[in-house]
């Protein structure tokens, strides 16, 4: 797998940034092709604008041309391209794309697209959104604050509702938790239980501007490989791009905040050959058991103390 690290914040700068990022990603991908990878991996929202939306509803000529350039590049590749890309879809099917007030009848998802032969073959929509940056959980309760944040160009996403398992022509099955989704055990266990043989995390941590933030995120991701007995590949825009083996060992991390690419040989552990771990099958059952047991012991201890207290007063 060829991982491309373009070390740029995707959302800063508008069209000029989108175009420059695409040029870097394309150049790095073509260089990596010389090492004969089976698949090319970009990071979370590496390519903006939305391919799905602008293919169906072209508007701005420059933006539409950039999407056409991306599609042509993807079609020219001899292998699949997996990239983060915002997905725009019609919000109300009964209304036209462009409403009478000049706004778009559109909702957006933070997605990963599996792009092959010039087409989007499959899409995964992020399920666990970041509160207050990717979605606002109290829109109805705090409409004033919601509108203030909206006016300050916050990007609100719709929530995905199901795990998706991609599959290559060689039969390798993988799922793509987006950004901090790789810190949630239940989500990744769900991917593996649905058939994923590899976990491919796609992250944009470039906003942090700090190596410490990249390392902290990586440290949490390590547990997903151990819990599920599956290799994790991390494809990031700024770090930490690497492979995590099933013992939690971090393999060949790329230097953070540097432009480059790396070819990783990815060990594949299939459910047919290696089965599912206890954690994959039961997720946080043991953790909940310890919580309930602690509550039971605390309640029992309190009742016993009350019993002793009243016994002494007799």
From TrEMBL:
CDD domains in the cross-refs: ALP_N-acyl_transferase
UniProt GO BP: lipoprotein biosynthetic process
Transmembrane segments: 285-308
Domain (CN hydrolase): residue spans on this chain: 1-268
Database matches in InterPro entries: Apolipo_AcylTrfase, C-N_Hydrolase, C-N_Hydrolase_sf
Localization per Swiss-Prot or TrEMBL: Cell membrane
RNA-binding in keyword set: no
Enzyme kind, highest EC tier: transferase
Membrane topology summary: Multi-pass membrane protein
GO molecular function, one term: N-acyltransferase activity
Main location as per UniProt: membrane
PROSITE patterns: CN_HYDROLASE
GO annotations of cellular component type: plasma membrane
Enzyme Commission number(s) from the entry: 2.3.1.-
Alphabetically ordered keywords of this record: Acyltransferase, Cell membrane, Lipoprotein, Membrane, Transferase, Transmembrane, Transmembrane helix
Protein name: Apolipoprotein N-acyltransferase
Organism: bioreactor metagenome
Protein encoded by which gene: lnt_11
């Amino acid at each position: 797998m060829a991982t491309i690290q373009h070390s740029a914040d995707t959302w800063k700068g508008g069209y000029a940034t989108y175009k420059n990022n695409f040029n870097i990603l394309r150049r790095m991908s073509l260089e990596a092709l010389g090492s004969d990878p089976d698949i090319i991996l970009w990071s979370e929202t590496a390519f903006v604008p939305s391919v799905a939306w602008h293919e169906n509803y072209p508007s701005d000529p420059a933006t539409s041309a950039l999407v056409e350039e991306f599609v042509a590049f993807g079609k020219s590749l001899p292998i699949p391209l997996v990239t983060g890309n915002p997905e725009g879809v019609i919000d109300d099917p009964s209304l036209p794309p462009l409403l009478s007030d000049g706004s778009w009848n559109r909702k957006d998802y933070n997605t990963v697209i599996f792009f092959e032969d010039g087409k989007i073959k499959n899409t995964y929509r992020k399920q666990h959104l970041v509160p207050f940056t990717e979605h606002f959980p109290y829109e109805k309760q705090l409409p004033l604050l919601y509108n203030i944040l909206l006016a300050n160009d916050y990007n609100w996403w719709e929530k995905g509702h199901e795990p998706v398992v991609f599959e290559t022509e060689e039969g390798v099955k993988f799922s793509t938790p987006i950004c901090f989704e790789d810190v949630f055990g239940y989500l990744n266990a769900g991917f593996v239980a649905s058939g994923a043989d590899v976990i491919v995390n796609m992250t944009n941590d470039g906003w942090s501007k700090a190596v410490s933030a990249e390392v902290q995120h990586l440290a949490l991701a390590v547990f997903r490989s151990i819990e599920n007995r599956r290799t994790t590949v991390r494809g990031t825009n700024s770090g930490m791009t690497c492979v995590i083996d099933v013992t939690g060992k971090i393999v060949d991390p790329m230097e953070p905040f540097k432009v480059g690419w790396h070819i990783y040989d990815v060990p594949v552990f299939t459910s047919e050959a290696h089965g599912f771990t206890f954690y994959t099958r039961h997720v946080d059952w043991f953790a909940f058991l310890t919580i309930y047991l602690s509550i039971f012991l605390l309640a029992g201890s309190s009742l016993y103390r009350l019993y002793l207290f009243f016994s002494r007063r007799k």
